Amino acid sequence: MSRKLLVVLLVVLLAALALAACGGAKETAAPTEAAAATTAPTATSEQTAAQPTEKPAQQEGEGTLATVKARGKIICGVNQAVPGFGFLQPDGSFAGFDIDYCKALSSAVFGSPDKVEYRPLNAKQRFTALQAGEIDVLIRNTTWTLTRDTELGANFAPTTFYDGQGIMVRKDSGIKTLADLEGASICVSSGTTTELNLADQMASRGINYTPVVFETADETTGAYLDGRCDAYTTDKSGLVARQSMFPHPEDHMILDETLSKEPLGPVVRHGDDQWFDIVKWMVFATFQAEESGVTSQNVDEMKNAEDPNIRKLLGTEGDMGAKLGLDNDWAYNIIKQVGNYAEIYNRNLGPDTVFNLPRGMNSSWKDGGLLYSPPFR
Ligand SMILES: N[C@@H](CCC(=O)N[C@@H](CS)C(=O)NCC(=O)O)C(=O)O
């Protein structure tokens, strides 16, 4: 047997073992990533996601933009279980803040928001799917971390939603602070920063707890609602989103404490600078449009604005689109078809939605928030 074949066989065997280990029991006693960190430097639960079964969407040696254009659609890795962000609706369509960013990318590339195939992925599957070329972009409440940015082969576009991890408990539990969770069981999803932060925060505060780990949000919240855990933890946005699906949302509350920083945004693979630039500037276009007061409603009039920044953004002046390999009306199309950041936020999370999330850090820098676009020039 050739050495190469032997290596391939070994890899397949290891992958099968990893799959058997994750797939068998849905619940594990300890956080897998944390456990991996304290033992040998083996794969974390993020890295032991299901192996790719389908043919990669991207052909070798071809840039993602060319692949996407030849295919006629973008394959966007998304969440299907977090209302307001990425959610599969009863009619089979996807909706949410992250979904709108898939649409914005489609508008930038194709001049239409509908050239998207949505690929639902759970937390553990997402980085393998990205690495394997099964998706062109991951827009799925994904936190930017150093490990993901390096070892996991991911490049992070600007943060579209600044979040932090929170804890939900039943109102009648008497639990008011993190310290009250001494001896508690806490439901958490695997392959997430949530799982790691929880272990770190509880250890540093000397609070003993039992993590009860599941692969999907449905399993995690299902177990919490069944009374198998005293608390449920994820990003605060995720808590609010999932709470909206509970039979009695009013029976639950989110503790004031925030356990971590969770900057969420789109992600692409390492190795394709042009595609990375497109995804980055697609996000910046939504920020800049809000900064400049350009909306889906006034974008046509704004084409005649005097402000050179607006003219460059909308393609009336300069050749910003060409620099990205796109048509010059790429950003005009995003704003016209999907909207500026405020429109995207309000449509999915704003005052007219069940979530009514205050903008807070997710305000434009002009309003004291963290959203800031570099110059369009
Ligand atoms: N932002 C965190 C957490 C993201 C995450 O996947 N959260 C879970 C808990 S709500 C989720 O979205 N699960 C949906 C599912 O896979 O069913 C991360 O990037 O690791």
Any idea what the CATH architecture of the largest domain is?
Answer: 3-Layer(aba) Sandwich
Helix vs. strand class = alpha/beta
**Tally of DSSP helical segments:** 15
Could you give the distance between the termini? 58 Å
Query: Domains counted in the coordinates: how many?
Result: 2
> Whole-number average pLDDT?
88
Low-confidence runs: 1-53
> What is the fold-level CATH name, i.e. the topology of the largest domain?
D-Maltodextrin-Binding Protein, domain 2
Query: Fraction of residues in helices?
Result: 25-40%
Summarize the structure.
With 377 residues, this protein is an alpha/beta fold. It has 15 helices and 15 strands. The strands form five sheets. Strands 11-10-12-9-13 form a five-stranded mixed sheet, sandwiched between helices.
Question: Which keywords apply here?
Answer:
377 residues; alpha/beta; D-Maltodextrin-Binding Protein, domain 2; 2 domains; three-stranded parallel β-sheet; 15 strands; disordered N terminus; binds glutathione
Can you describe what's shown?
The protein folds into two domains: 64-162 and 264-367, D-Maltodextrin-Binding Protein, domain 2 (3-Layer(aba) Sandwich), CATH 3.40.190; 165-257, 3-Layer(aba) Sandwich (D-Maltodextrin-Binding Protein, domain 2). The radius of gyration is 22 Å and the shape is globular. Helix content is 38%, strand content 15%. The chain has a five-stranded mixed sheet with strand order 11-10-12-9-13, with helices on both faces. The protein has a three-stranded parallel sheet with strand order 5-1-6. The protein is of the alpha/beta class. It has helices spanning 3-23, 32-38, 64-71, 97-110, 126-131, 146-149, 193-205, 217-225, 236-243, 273-291, 299-302, 308-314, 320-324, 330-337, 341-349, and strands at residues 74-78, 81-82, 86-88, 94-95, 116-120, 137-138, 154-156, 161-163, 165-170, 184-189, 209-214, 231-235, 252-254, 262-264, 267-269. The chain starts with a helix and ends in a 28-residue tail after the last helix. It is built from 15 helices and 15 strands.
